[in-house]
Amino acid sequence: MTDRVTSDFIFGTLATDELRLEALRGTRSGVVHDNVLSPACPVPEQPTTIVIMVGQDVAVSGIVARYSVNDTMPSDSTDVVAFHLDAVEWDTLAWAYSQRWTAMLPGFPRGTLVRYEVEVTLADGSMSGADLDPWTGRPTPFAVLVDDDADPGWLAGSVIYNVFVDRFSPGDGRQWRSANALDEFYGGTIRGVTEKLPFLADLGIDCLWLSPVFPSPSHHGYDATDYLTIEPRLGTEADLVELVATAHRAGIRVILDFVANHVSDRHPAFVSATTDPDASTREWFNFRSWPDEYRSYFGLRTLPQIDTTNASARDFLFTAAEYWLRRGVDGFRLDHAHGPTHAFWAEFRARTRAIRPDCVALGEVVETAALQRSYAGRMDGMLDFLFLQQVRAFFAFETETASAFETFTQRHLAYFPPGFTLATFLDNHDMNRFLWVARGDVDLLKMAALYQFTLPRPPIIYYGTE
After folding, report:
1. Active-site annotation, residues
2. Which helix H or strand E contains 21, and what residues bound it?
3. Fewest CB atoms less than 10 Å from the CB: which of 190, 239, 419, 432?
4. Using CA atoms, how far apart are residues 424 and 451, in angstroms rounded to an integer?
5. CA-CA distance, 164 to 332, in Å (whole number)?
């Protein structure tokens, strides 16, 4: 990657070489599980191997996993399996030895949510865990859903159209608002989207992804103040139900943007948590010093992060997702999906599939291919950020050779397991549009789109690119 390509900033925690190296070093220390299982997606009655890596900075005398199923949480009274030292490996980056420990969970019936926690006995007799949270210091809880369901068959063959609702169409013959800045409200509505459905159907779209529609103080909506109603400037719940019903009649499915990682600092749950020391929602958030120092999304104080290890917070989010599935939506695009734990998404899958067996969960994980692949069995697929970077490098910036681009694509297609869908795209709301980085060259955009549409994966069109 040249400086020019690197300057095409792709939002995420691994956006620079320095951040990637720091993250890689972090995986070489401590006791690390990283949700590594074999097989990654256990089918009914299939035993599963848990893999733990122990870095050179830790000496352990024993490791166990305490496990439970469904609504029971792991504890001292639940079942336990012991790990054994499987191998000692040389780590050149750390310039030290690491250890590989493994344990085997038994097989379970279809639909079982297997929860487990890793308990580590250090050489000095003290206790620790795996994947310690850098903010709380607590071990990460883990879970996997035993299932043999493939992803809903409709997803892989879809052509997805992503609408930023505030910027798409005012509808009802209304004019756009007078706005002077990009972060102001422009006046797009849900009814405006509904009016454009014939155009989308003619275009060949069969899945519509809406940007967040829940109440929010921002133009983008990724900071909800409520998950069970609709932002009034965008419309009403009746408008959304009408959109979904009309879309379905046209053969178009509808997925909503869903943010489980964080809320607005104006959300009533957070307001209560910071004004009432006895509030039931105080445990939904992590405070270092109540009420002013709390965990937030990328350090933004207006976006407090939800502690999805808290049972009440999890149930709040699951209930919201279930609510909209019952109103006809076909699934969710999951914002910053690597914020919540893998255990959260395993339970999310179980809860949502119980309502709509054919609903989809499509994650936004702007990280490594290995981390993206680890969500197989917990989500139906990912937004393909790695392809995004390569396709922009080759077609727009023209800094990648054809052979290198083709080699990447073929290996990328082979890396992910069958049934795990990666949806391709050329741009989105978090970056410059492809046509802009291509310096207005429409032919380059057409060639990139042509290549995108020839891949055996669902393409996403960001509104206006057509």
Report:
1. 335, 364
2. helix 17-26
3. 432
4. 10
5. 15
CATH of the domain at 208: 3.20.20.80
Minimal CA–CA distance to 274: which of 290, 289, 263?
290
Report the 10 Å Cβ neighbour count for 40.
Answer: 17
Angle at 264 between CA 260 and CA 269, to 5 degrees: 80
Tell me the per-residue pLDDT of 253-283, one tens digit each, with 9 for 90 and over: 999 999 999 999 999 999 999 999 999 999 9
Same domain, 330 and 395: yes
pTM of the complete model beyond 0.90: yes
Please, what sign has the CA dihedral across residues 313, 316, 322, 325?
negative
Answer with the one of 145, 179, 201 that is the final residue of a domain.
Answer: 145
The tokens of 176 are what?
């756009």
DSSP 8-state class, residue 177: P
Number of domains in the chain: 2
Tell me what pLDDT residue 9 has: 59
412, burial (CB in 10 Å: exposed 0-12, middle 13-18, buried 19+): middle
Q: What is the pLDDT of residues 119-153, one digit of tens each?
A: 999 999 999 999 999 999 999 999 999 998 777 88
Q: What is the rounded distance in angstroms from the CA atom of residue 120 to the CA atom of residue 139?
A: 10
Structure tokens at 244: 């979904």
pLDDT for position 7: 56
For residue 119, what are the domain limits? 26-145
Same domain, 450 and 320: yes
Give strand ranges (E) for 6-74: 31-32, 37-38, 48-54, 60-69
The rounded percent of the chain whose pLDDT value lies above 70 is 98
Secondary structure letter of residue 110 according to DSSP: T
Burial status of residue 152 (CB atoms within 10 A of its CB: 0-12, 13-18, 19 or more): buried
**pLDDT > 50? residue 3:** no
Amino acid identity for residue 445 in this structure = L
Closest to 72 (Cα-Cα) out of 33, 108, 120: 108
Residue 424 φ then ψ, to 5°: -90, 150
Check residue 305 and give left, alpha or beta (phi > 0: left; psi -120 to 50: alpha): beta
